[in-house]
Structure formats: C-alpha cells, structure tokens
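Worked example (supplementary).
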Amino acid sequence: MATLDDVSQRGSVLDLGINTLLEESGVAKASLYAHFGSKEQLIVAWLERRQEAWFGWFDAHVEKHARHGDPASEIDAAFGFLEAWLSRDDFAGCPFITVYVQLQNEEHPAALESRRYAERLHAYFFERLRRMKRPTGRAKEEAAALLDLYLGAVVVGQLGVAGSRAATAARRTARAILSDVL
Amino acid sequence: MATLDDVSQRGSVLDLGINTLLEESGVAKASLYAHFGSKEQLIVAWLERRQEAWFGWFDAHVEKHARHGDPASEIDAAFGFLEAWLSRDDFAGCPFITVYVQLQNEEHPAALESRRYAERLHAYFFERLRRMKRPTGRAKEEAAALLDLYLGAVVVGQLGVAGSRAATAARRTARAILSDVL
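After joint prediction of all chains, the assembly is encoded as:
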C-alpha cells in the first residue's frame, strides 16, 4: 500500500494534516477513510508497518551476524544493528519514541502502539537472558539495563551529543553485562 | 517571573499557542513581546529556566548523598537522583528531550538549548571520570555509556516499560562501570 510507504521516511506523521497526508500519498480522501476510518487509525497503521519493517531489518542483521542459537551473540548482534542504524546518514531517531513523546497522551492508540515496540525489544532481551540461564529477577534487571542502553543510545545519537560514541559505548556495556562481570 | 513558572509543569510548551501561553501566564501580549521578543524566545527562556531548576535539584541531591569530593560517589548519587525523579508521581519525561523530539528541527534555538542540557550532563560525567584518573579515551566512552543509561532510563520510564526497573538497572550498571569491572 503506497499510502504508508510514501511517508515512512519521516520521523513522525503527527504534524501532518489530513490534507498533507492525502497529497503526499496521492490517495483520495474517501479512499483513505474507507481503508483506515480516521487519521488516528492511519497513524496506528503506519506505526504497525514501521514496527514490522524495523524488526525485519533488526532480525536480518542478527541472523547474518550472530552465531546461530547463541543468545548472547544474538544480543550482541542486536547492538551491532544499533551501531549500523545510528551511523546511517538518514538516521533521524526512533519513530516510536518520537510519536510517543509528541502525543503527550499515553492512552492514545498510537502511544499504545509505540509502547508495544519498546515492550517487544524488552522481551527480546529478556527471553535471551533466560536462555542464558539467568534467574528471572536478574534477567528482568539486565533486560531493563539493555533497554536503557539501547533507547538511550538512540536519543543521545539523535541529540548529537557524545560524538559517534553513543552506540559503541552501549554495545561495549551490553557485552560486559552479558559476559557476567556485572 | 510568573510567566514561566506557571507552565513549568508541562512536558512541553510547544503545543501551546501564544494565546494559551498568555492566558495561563496572565501576561498581556505586549508585555510578553517586550520581555521575550517572540514565542520562540519565550520557549528558549522557559528551557533555560527549566535547565537551571533541574540542575539545581540534581546538585542538591548529589550534595546531600555523595561523599564530598569523591567523583565516583557523585556519579552514583546522580543516578540516585534519577531513581528519585522517575519514582515521582508527576514524572512526565524529560522536557528537553520532549522539546527536541517535538521540534524535528535541530537548528531551532530551542533544540540547541535542549542539546545544551544533554551536553552538560555528559560533561558532568566526563569530568568526574577524568578525576578518577581514567585515560581520556576511556573517560569519553564511559561518559557516553553513562549518558545512554541516564537518558535511556528517562525514556523507558516515560514509556512505562520494564516496570520500575529502568532507573535501578541504570544505576546498577553505572556502578559496575565506575567500579572498574568493565
């Protein structure tokens, strides 16, 4: 569906009016409403597609770089994806964080969809820590630390602070967590 | 000046129109422009005051909880402030990140002011790591990791993912970085 792909390079669609969305996507208003019902549902649909696309890139990178079936190697490769993402010329922050922060309304359907992205990443780390035989409590704490590092590097990278170190420092710290020294 | 304090509890002022700002602050439009020149400058002034207030709370907490003159203890207390901040009922994310992300324009004067907040926090960590006799390169990398953890915990806390672990996991990881095990 061209509608969503055409705007998918933006950091956020929230500041777009319906008319701009229609203009950019080349879709008639009647067709838009027939598909999505409302602008709100269009944003949610856009976020769902962004999330599937993002995890598609993420999974492909991990598949290529991690040792198969090795959970620590998979988490390390996930941070390798972070490094690759932040070093892209078109990196413009995380669209899910952007939409969440722009909404300032945690009950909005698009905010719930954004939270689902962070929960999925958190679950990704937690499940692998459990496969590494971490006790549940420790796995929960380490998964939270890995999520802090991951989303923190995204925000620090977006702010342009700490040079290019945001992702490499996050990966190095994640490795230390995984290697049992913490 | 009541103008800025009255809106200081909001996560962001960017979605406020000039008339709302005037209404909330009880200031006449002529007086507003006489003081700030434009809405843009009002936002910058608001961010400057927020930043001074934030570092005031931060410094007071560190002063109270850290061993005087001990840079590792000061950084640990800085993460203690993070725990206290995120556990407040009125925690609504970081206003500097919020404004930066909402603007989607890194050259906007308010975006520069928001970046200044993150740079100041980064410098805070870096200077203390140097006092801990870390070589410059390592201090830069560790300061980046601490900033990732700090701002990441703010975003994870705002998203409401990982329960209440965002700040405690960040502090625990920061302690490990400081204690030389990484």
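Two points are worth noting when inspecting this output. Chain B has a mean pLDDT of 86. Chain B touches chain A through 48 residues (CB under 8 Å).
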